[in-house]
Amino acid sequence: MNDCVFCRIASGEIPATIVKRTPEAVAFRDLNPQAPVHVLVIPTQHVDSAAQATGDAGEALLGKTMRLAVEVAHDLGLDGPGYRLVANTGVDGGQSVPHFHLHLLGGRRMDWPPG
Ligand code: AMP
After folding, report:
1. Residues identified as active-site
2. Which residues make Cβ contacts (< 8 Å) with residue 92, sequence separation at least 6?
3. Do the Cβ atoms of 34 and 115 come closer than 8 Å?
4. Which mean pLDDT values do the consecutive 10-residue runs of the chain (115 residues) have?
5. Which residues line ligand 1 at a C-beta cut-off of 6 Å?
6. Mind listing the domains of the chain with CATH numbers?
7. CB-based contacts of 115: which residues, under 8 Å, 6+ apart?
């Protein structure tokens, strides 16, 4: 989608600090980090949210996005201390960019419940 900021990052049209990329997903640093490690992991293909990722193709999209998040967590040394993966969804979930994304947060102890 031309007007989607994350699609434009995936295509290279908007600069971002890319951490890792596969043909199906891209991981890049969040502009406004909420933890010492704050990486966003998105599918290259646009879906507004996980609910739109249907059928076998949707299952692959979600799985490959999650797989990249787990790989990046490993690469950044977070397996031992742990980390949090978050998918804010819709208004109540606090989603501000309507392109499905996982927040990978680490490097500090997380609170629960979230705000
Ligand atoms: P959410 O509120 O869950 O939709 O998360 C959107 C995230 O995208 C926020 O944490 C923003 O800081 C981040 N963000 C928005 N625009 C950019 C950008 N151009 N590059 C990197 N991160 C961005």
Report:
1. 101
2. none
3. no
4. 93 98 98 98 98 97 98 98 98 98 98 93
5. 5, 14, 16, 30-32, 40, 88, 94-97
6. 5-106 (3.30.428.10)
7. none
Q: State the CB neighbour count (10 A cutoff) for residue 78.
A: 19
pLDDT of residue 106: 98
Nearest-CA residue for atom 17 of ligand 1: 31
- Extract the tokens encoding 109: 């102890």
pTM across the whole model: 0.98
CA of 31 to the centre of ligand 1 (A): 6
Distance (angstroms) between ligand 1 centre and the Cα of 18 equals 14
Give the span between the Cα atoms of 19 and 33, in whole angstroms: 14
